[in-house]
Amino acid sequence: MTSPSTMVAFSLSIVVTALAALAQAQTPNVSLLIDDPYYYDLAQSLDVRSLLPFVSLRKGAAFHWGSTYSYPAAAEANWTSEKFSTYWGHIVAENDCKWYATEPERQDFTLSACEGVSQYAAEHFATFRGHNTFWHNQLPAWLPGNVTASDLVNNVIPTHVSTVIKSLGWNVTSWDVTNELISDTATYNMTSLECVLNADRWPTVTYDGGSTPLVTNLSFAYAAWRTALMYDPGKLVYNDYSTGAQDAKTECVFQLIADLNINASIPYNRMGVGFQSHVGAQEGYYVPKAELETTFARLAALGVDALVTEMDLWIQANDTINQRYQAAIWGDYLDACLYASNCFEFVNWDNRDDTSWITPGDGHGVAMATLFDMYGNPKPVTYEIMARFARYAEGAAEMCATALGTESCTVY
Ligand SMILES: *[C@@H]1O[C@H](CO)[C@@H](O)[C@H](O)[C@H]1NC(C)=O
Ligand SMILES: *[C@@H]1O[C@H](CO)[C@@H](O)[C@H](O)[C@H]1NC(C)=O
Ligand SMILES: *[C@@H]1O[C@H](CO)[C@@H](O)[C@H](O)[C@H]1NC(C)=O
Ligand SMILES: *[C@@H]1O[C@H](CO)[C@@H](O)[C@H](O)[C@H]1NC(C)=O
Ligand SMILES: *[C@@H]1O[C@H](CO)[C@@H](O)[C@H](O)[C@H]1NC(C)=O
Ligand SMILES: *[C@@H]1O[C@H](CO)[C@@H](O)[C@H](O)[C@H]1NC(C)=O
Ligand SMILES: *[C@@H]1O[C@H](CO)[C@@H](O)[C@H](O)[C@H]1NC(C)=O
Ligand SMILES: *[C@@H]1O[C@H](CO)[C@@H](O)[C@H](O)[C@H]1NC(C)=O
């Protein structure tokens, strides 16, 4: 006779076995380029900068590979400078070009910190991208609740966008004109306006979470884009997170860029879509390469660029299988961009694990989400990236999606 307690133990063992199987399925055994002794040796220098001219030559236009900069502590200044001289060749200001930093009081602009990041890029012979001219977060206190809709659309936004963009001039590859307008709970067949209103974010509400609508149409977005078109010589980018797959939020991105094209007269060939790519090394928490490529190709057909703008990738556990999975996924994202006809910028977010905004727990596993560890040392992904660039620069054909695991993709 089976006692209730044995039944519990029995079903528990099934659950544990099932969970173990699930965990195994979520962290596949992957194949990496750096398993090949040729690429392993080649990757040791981590001198990606020396490869970028050859990458650009194959792409037919400059390829920008970079990360964030935010005036590091003295102890990390030399490390940072060395990385922006050898590993990354492109820089985005983590915070210093945002609205709260650039216009802390109305029409009283403080652009020196933002311009200083551009200056730092120039000193490192690196290129610079702008982030951002419009976002509902990191706003100055004077703004969100204290202006009328018509003042916002007709004065506040045009003044802000034109002043910030003009201050950086011709040194910018692209600007994130509007950041994160679209709802996380978007559904298929929403109009672009519905995609935005559903987010319940300022300025379609008075404050985030507040219920009083400030603007009820997309005039605020048109104002930002029309102004950017006048002053920005580079690409104008719509930037967002949890996008890139074949899903409703990404569908909203296509609705929004069509709306901007028709109603704000923004030519598609001046536009880019930024895929932030704050992702995790667990099935369902990153976009499979094939889906990214489908999305990038759909943009290419319109004449719109695709950019990876803020990549970081947390892992579930601090062990070899997870570190390798991280390298495989990051490598797939890079390949998706390299082999796309319309992707010329790939930017990572935060330079090392000790300064990353992704911290352990909080649904982010053990974090370890950047390209260098907490001491600034390289990881498998750091080398794998160098190997992917080398392979592309050599003219090799695109390879399979390594994140699918060795059963579907063995590299060599
Ligand atoms: C991982 O894949 C490689 C290549 O297919 C294989 O040799 C190795 O045994 C696999 N390791 C595990 C733990 O399954
Ligand atoms: C950084 O490098 C400079 C020049 O090589 C050196 O003088 C300085 O001591 C270094 N700073 C730190 C914190 O290592
Ligand atoms: C480009 O950047 C350099 C270095 O920061 C600066 O001296 C120059 O004025 C900038 N050019 C424009 C057009 O802003
Ligand atoms: C704008 O509104 C915010 C929130 O109510 C308030 O804290 C702030 O003091 C106001 N600023 C100005 C300049 O009125
Ligand atoms: C609704 O969205 C689905 C998925 O994109 C699409 O197949 C369908 O054609 C859409 N329907 C309408 C009426 O647009
Ligand atoms: C859109 O909203 C703005 C700001 O509230 C308003 O001034 C404008 O009349 C609206 N446009 C349309 C077509 O409703
Ligand atoms: C342009 O705006 C109108 C009015 O808001 C809207 O009905 C239409 O769908 C928009 N066009 C596109 C392509 O989104
Ligand atoms: C990850 O594991 C390695 C090897 O055990 C250890 O040296 C390192 O401190 C760990 N890192 C973190 C962030 O726990």
If you had to describe this structure to a student in words, what would you say it looks like?
There is one protein chain. The protein is an alpha/beta fold and 412 residues long. The protein has a single domain (30-404), classed as TIM Barrel, CATH 3.20.20.80. The protein contains 13 helices and nine strands. It has helices at 4-26, 37-43, 52-59, 74-86, 99-102, 112-123, 149-168, 192-197, 219-231, 248-263, 289-302, 320-338, 380-393; strands spanning 64-69, 90-93, 127-131, 172-179, 235-240, 271-275, 278-280, 305-314, 343-348. Strands 1-2-3-4-5-6-8-9 form an eight-stranded parallel β-barrel, surrounded by five helices. Strand 1 (64-69), helix 4 and strand 2 form a beta-alpha-beta unit. Helix 2 packs across helix 13. The protein is globular. The relative contact order is 0.14. One 2-acetamido-2-deoxy-beta-D-glucopyranose binds at residues 188-189, 251.
What would a concise description of this structure say?
The model is unreliable at 1-21 (pLDDT under 50). The termini are far apart.
